[in-house]
Structures are given as structure tokens and as C-alpha cells.
Amino acid sequence: MEKAGNEIYADIIVNIVHEALDKTFQYRVPQHLRENAAVGDYVKIPFGRGNRLIEGYIISLGNTPLIEPERIKDIDSVIKDSSLVEGKLIKLAAWMRKRYGSTMIQALKTVLPIKKETGVKEEKTVILLLSPDEAKETLAEFVRKHQTARERLLRALIENGEIDQKLITGKLNVSTATIKALCEKNIIEVRTDRLYRNVKPHQSEKKNIELNEDQKKTVSAILSDMKTGKNNSFLIHGITGSGKTEVYMEIIEKVIREDKQVIMLIPEIALTFQTLMRFYNRFGDRVSTLHSKLSKGERYDQFERAKKGEISVMIGPRSALFTPFSRLGLIVIDEEHEPSYKSDSMPKYSAREVAFELARLHGAFVVMGSATPSVDSYYLAKNNKSRLLKLNRRAVENASLAEVSVVDLREELKAGNRSVFSRELKEGIEDRLNRNEQVMLFLNRRGFAGFISCRSCGHVIKCPHCDVALTLHSDNRLTCHYCGYEQDNVKKCPECSSELIGGMKAGTERIEAMVKKAYPYATVLRMDADTTKNKDDYDRILSSFANREADILIGTQMIVKGHDFPFVTLVGVLAADMSLFANDYRASERTFDLLTQAAGRAGRADRRGKVVIQTYNPDHYSIINSAAQDYEAFYEQEIAYRGFMDYPPVKHMLAIVTESEDEKLCDSRIDDLAAHIKDAIISRGSEKNVRLIGPVDCNIKKIKDIYRKVLYLKSADENTLTELKDDAWEYMDTEHKKGIRLSFDLDPIHGY
Ligand code: ADP
Ligand code: ZN
Ligand code: ZN
After folding, report:
1. Main-chain dihedrals φ then ψ at residue 125, nearest 5 degrees
2. Atom of ligand 1 nearest to the CA of 275
3. Which domains can be identified in the chain, with CATH numbers?
4. Is residue 238 lining ligand 1, measured as CB closer than 6 Å?
5. What are phi and psi of 27, to 5 degrees?
6. pLDDT of 253
7. Which helix (H) or strand (E) holds 644?
8. Least confident of 52-61, 314-323, 579-588
9. Pocket test for ligand 1, best of 209, 372, 390, 393 (most atoms within 8 A of CB)
């Protein structure tokens, strides 16, 4: 007879809807099915008193019975059906739970779609009623009258014929009032369909771009490797405008011709109307998107359509990975270096890594692309884990790279210039304003700037609830960007009573005021977290800048992402080094990315652009190499540093964070855990290949009155870290977790 401990029990869910995910039933895996039963498998089980056979999915396996073993029934049979996409998603969730640390329920909730009924499904499509000549005439009228929203809408319709109303009010940022006004003038018509569908393909004006030699080579390299199975992942390192998107579309077309499906990841911030339209125009209503304007119900509808096989390409940010495609053939990750590909809630997964696992489960391929690949992906490519392909030239002949100049701010000061604008930048701005071209001014870091400190004693005014400096706003109020706390500005130092207290550095708002003062005739737009509180603000500001409604756009890193502004010929980076000193091992990488992408903003089309990088550290390798647009040189220096410091991707790093309202509890729990992990390391004999660092206070010690501590484990061996994480998870049982929150972050993308 078998001992109870040798039995294998399976937790099974019978109803995959979110509310029911934590409702599982335990069954025994009988001897003859043991070889066969795995997490994610579809099984038949006897249910209820009548033992009626019903179906469900195994979500976990273990040796511990939750009730008396005699009362646990046997699984009837395992149905091996690889077309069941839920099974694959459950396997993926199990992999994520194991790798990143979370409960299985948290992982399942991340990958399985939330069921929400939308009621009647109505789709509104805006259709142009004018002939091409009439449309041209009307467009000229709108331009003349500076009716920019109308102009924007009409241009888009002339190009695309008809467009989903959601895209117009969302990505194109045209109000329903404008739509209504044009309807009344019989320029457009809104058609309502009671269906789920997207825009119709617009056959008439499909521009067929002929790929250039470099693009063709890239496409055929990828396709031939896909055919032979020589490589299953690819990294395209191609400068901005080198035609990566055309390459993706070519490969996508081949994949869907073979009746496979495609997930196309684009960070929300780069998912512009123009980009979406390129996909719609090429693939018609086989394409769907998951943009942030969709309600939960609408998202669910898109997932249902995907499941029914009504669409072939899903475009969206990281959550698009969980589209329930049963014939997934390809995952494309554009701008693969983007930090938004890492989730910030448990499980804290990397979309790139999840894409690889998902592709493995489906036998699919991964194509990544970036102008500034992440050091992680480049490292993998260099170690032959994926194939590296390069596109070194801009696709459009007359587009040239910007001229970059680095200005040493220390020299400016020596020359008596105390302004935040160097002489070279000032000259540049005046010149552009005279020529009626546009300027972007980019400030590296918001939270860093605009804080109040005492010049006598150095005291900084901080938020009473968070361990961060308060920021001064133009209404003379001090605000906390973490919790929203506000107070009046201070006149005297609360520590030493000195009156020499004030703002030290310039935030975006201060820069705006200075620009307005220096160039009163220029129109200025500002984009930062304060001016983009509503979802629409981001698109509104960018589209109005793109329409040349302003001469100068001032902003944080938000403004350097994937937008095309053909009239921008000068980009000024005000203090390039601010992000270098963030307490973060990826600070140099992020600085390099931002500067390189900022440089990519200037001078597309036929105007040569100029970039002025102002810095106190002109000799830093991330500044030198971004000015020279030399990724390779940057990478070599950066990877040497990572290796020297045992940072990812050379080593793996696991952050374990405790949070609590009670500072003492937060401390003692993590100290206790650290001691336990130390023992675990010793008892495994892993002292040589695991390093434990900390515990220490997080960079920001307190947020919203919650204290935070972190400890790091570093190792070359990922499995050791996974096992230590599981050990820590088990050790921190209900009793140990009382009053604190515990979280894990594998290979974090920022310091804690
Ligand atoms: P990336 O994704 O690398 O930034 P895109 O694919 O968006 O580059 O291409 C940049 C611009 O060049 C787009 O306007 C695109 O239509 C155009 N383009 C790309 N490839 C070609 C080509 N082979 N011939 C002509 N124009 C091209
Ligand atoms: Zn003081
Ligand atoms: Zn605060």
C-alpha cells in the first residue's frame, strides 16, 4: 500500500472566469495518469454526488491533501489537446509564478482575460462623404481657418477612407463635437454597426513600399532561419527611421499567409495613430488593438474575437501577450528596450522573457527591434541566443542623421553664462524661431528638479509621508509627486531659520517660464506628469505640436518617444547627466537611450537636424557615445561595468522587498528573512556562487507612510535564485507575513 505522502494531488479549476479563479477542486492523479498529467492539462473529473463527468484544467500539482485523502476522487482522464489555448496560458502562468514569484492566482489573473459583458456591441465608423477634389478644397479651407482638429480628421480620412470612431476620439484626439459638426455639414457620416469589428481595409490607396536592399536581406535572413529552425529569435538593431516597421510587416504577412497568428507589442507611448493605420491599411480587419482607450468589456471582446480566429494580428502594449491565439506563429517586440515591458505588480514579469516562453510553448518565433537595444537583449544576441541583424541607414533617401554637439556647462559658467541655456542652444533657438521651425527642449528628470533647499544648512523640504523632496509649483505651493501632499512654500528654513532657502534646480515648469520670458513671441507647450493627468492630454499635446500649433515643446522623457515631427530641427537636452546619478544600475543605459532617441527626433524629412546636449559630465561614456551615435562602443563599456559589478545581464539579481506601516516590523522581518536565506545558502553549499547584499532601506525609504526595505541576491545561476526565492516564499508563511507586504523582483529594471 502507498503512503499518503507519495500521492499526487491536482488543483483543478472548472470555470475559467476571473471571479472563480481561486475556486479550485482537489483530485488525485491516479497511478496510470502520473506520467501524463501536467499543469495546464485539460482533464475530465467526476463531479458532485452523481459523479457526472465534467472538464477542467490542472493549475497546480502537489503532495498535500487539503481534506481527508479518502474523500478525494481520482481524475478520470487527461485530454491532450494542444489547440486549447487556455491550457497554454495556464502553463505560462505557472512558469511566471515560478520565475518571478507570486501566487498562482495572481499569475492566472495576469494571463487570463477578465470576463466583462459590454451589453450591445456597437461599432461606430466615420466615413468620408466627399469626392477627392471636394475633400482637397475643404481641407484647404480648414487649414486657412486654423481649424486644426477638423484638418487632422479630414487628412486622416483622405488617407484612409473610413476610420473607427474610437481611434479618432482616442489616438487622433478629435472630439465627438467636431465629428458631429462635420456630420451636420455632410462632410462625413457615422455608421453604426452592431458587430465587433475594426476599421475596414482601405483598398484604393494602399501604398506598396518596395523594401530596400538592407530590409530585404533582413527579411530573408529571418524567413529562412524560421524555415530551417536555425534560430527562433531575432534582434533587429536599426536606427530610428531605418524601416524596421516595414520589415515587421513583411514578416507578419508571410506568417499570416500560413494561417498563423501574430502578437505585435508596441509600448503604449509609441502606439501612435499613424503606426496603427499602417497596420490597418496593410492587414485590414484581421488586425485588432488593445489600446488604453478600450474599456474592460471591449478588451474582452477583442480577446473573444482572437479566440474565435477572427483576427490574425493583435497590436498592443505588454498585456497583448496574453491574447488567446491558438495558432500563434510570431511575436514581434518593437522598441524592445522600453522599461514599460516590465510589469510593476506581482508577478513582476518581463514581457520579453514571457514572449520567449510563450513562443516556446507554441513553437513560435520572436522578432525584437530597437534603435537602442537593451543591454540584456544585446548580450543574449552576442552570446548567440538570438540572431542579431542590423539596419544602419535611414530608409528614406533624403533623411539625414542629426548633428550632435555636447556643451560643457562648467565652461558656460566660467564664461559668465549663468542661464540654463548655453550660448549655443540660445543661438539655435533664435535661429529656428526666425526660420519658423520647431524646437524641443528636453529635461531629463522631473522629480529631481524644483526642490527647495536651505543654502545655509543644506536642509531639504521633504514630504512628511514619503522620503522625497517636495516640488515647487508656480502657484507657490509645494507638492509631493508620490502621494499628492501639498503645503504652502516656506519662507524660512525650518531647521536653522535662515531665509536663504529656495528652489535650486529648474523643473519643466520653471523652464517654461524662462522660455516664455526670453522669447515672448514664441508659443510654448509643456508636457510632463502635471500636464498629462488625463489620458487624452498626452495625445492632445503631441498632436497639437505636430500640427505646428506651437514653436517649442518642453518636456520630460515622454516627448522623446517614437513621434515624427518633421519641422523639429533642434533638440536641446538641458541637463543630460541628471539621470546618470539616479541610484540605479541601469542609469547609464537609460541616459544613453534617452539621448540617442532624443537625437533621433531632430531633422527627419529633408531638414538637417541639430541636437545640443548640455552636461556637467561631457566625458561620461553614455554621453560621448550617444553624441557619436555609437551603440557598440557604449555597449562594450556598459557590459564591462555590469560584469565587474555582478549586475544583470552578466549575473542575475533578485530583489526581495518588505513594506510595512510599522518601521520596526519592516526591519525585523527582513532581517529575519535575510538570516534564514543566509542559512539556506550555506546548507546548499552555495556560498561561492550567491551573494547576499543588504538588507538596506530602499532609495525612497518611505512612500505614503509605508516603510520599505530591500535585500538583493546575486548569482550567475538563475535556478539557484529561483530556489532561494521559493524557499523564502515558504519561510514567510502567514505568521511571518503578518503586517508586512513581501514582493520579489527578478532582474529589476531599476534600483529599489
Ligand atoms: P523604423 O520603424 O525603423 O523607425 P519605419 O519602418 O517607420 O522605420 O520607416 C521610417 C519611414 O521610412 C516611414 O515613413 C516608412 O514609410 C519609410 N520607409 C521604410 N522603408 C521604406 C522603403 N523601403 N522605401 C521607402 N520608404 C520607406
Ligand atoms: Zn537651514
Ligand atoms: Zn508624499
Report:
1. -120, 135
2. 7
3. 9-111 (3.40.1440.60), 121-195 (no CATH), 217-391 (3.40.50.300), 403-448+505-643 (3.40.50.300), 450-503 (no CATH), 652-746 (3.30.70.600)
4. yes
5. -130, 155
6. 95
7. helix 631-644
8. 579-588
9. 209
